[in-house]
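Methods — Computational structure assignment.
A single polypeptide chain was analysed. Its primary sequence is given first, followed by the predicted tertiary structure written as structure tokens.
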Amino acid sequence: MKHHRRAWLRGLGGACGLAALCGLDAALGRAAAGPQEATGEQSEQPAAVAERAGQSALPARRPSPAAVHTVLGPVAPEQIGAALMHEHAPLIDWSELFENPAAPLEGLRDKMLQTAAAQLDAFHRSLPEEWGPGAIVECTPIRVGRYPHLLQALARRTQVHVIGCTGFWGEAMAPAHPWALELLRGRGGVERVAELYVKEIREGMEDPSGRWGEHYTAVRAGIIKTATSTYLRPIERRLHEAAALACLETGCPITTHTTDGGGWEQAQLLLQRGVPPQKIIIGHQGHLDDRQHEEAHDLHRQLAELGCYVQFDRVGQPRYELEKIARQVRLLCEHGHAGRVLFGHDRVPYVYRRFADANGGPEGWEALEVDLSVVPVKLAAVLRAAGVSAEDVHAMLVENPARVLAF
């Protein structure tokens, strides 16, 4: 980022931001309305600003059309079809979170790709023609088994689009990555993390084969991930602030991990930092999302009323049964919020179980059964049987992902 942009980011990240000083209600109103509606004034055009500064007016640059940024390049939003908004493929490895070497992939790479591609192909075949070809948002964070070239290789084996993510893990169930802690240490830490996220969105994701930040690929991220424990911890708060800065700089959407609560605090924090609500996806909804009720209908409605997306992305897992998810989604649709619902499974073909063992070896890998047709086939049928219209089901699976992923 340029020097003036860096100074602006430092001012925004180092304090609570102007929105917080003016109160959350005012901040939410501005975020939802947009800058011109909130002030009642028309913003100056670039030529007028240049003239007023005594400079020559430059021709206005034509904005690039919004695209979904897949690991194989930009795709028109209407071309992706039904999208599963929180998946992992082909693997997850927590080893580096515990300061151990990444798990070995030698001799397993092709098998992992073959398995993951077969699961994506099965998802593609499960879709009606008008919902094809299909897409997944691959939500594995930095250095948690995210190999950009592996994602590209996977995407080349299937018709399903693959969108990669930037963003560090928080502290839920495992420590934050030591690289995140190193970047956050000292003055300007939030801005340093934000700069990394922006680099991964605009240029390409880091190659984890070397030292932290030593090498980068040309595989661009298409979404920012951030995570919270049941209650937002200090490190997680700073990583959310970095995600907000990167979103404001690039327009890239933010998707969140919650842990039986935390979504409301995430939404408040991101909105206070100026993130437009339509760029915020509150994830892992469907069970104890307000920390009290198994089905947090009021919370979901309030998030949707803010303009944030409510994402049910553990569909079919224990505690996230189809009928339970369908009840919560039906109520959102009855309140007119079908345009703010997204789905996924949060499944992974391979997970490394010996992440806390420095000498875990290849036998630490476990292959898991993954069925990515649960949402488009089984949940869609349960929703229709519960009274949700075909138009709303189409909106939640096809139209909403195309809208939120495009920037």
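Note: Confidence is low (pLDDT under 50) at residues 2-61.
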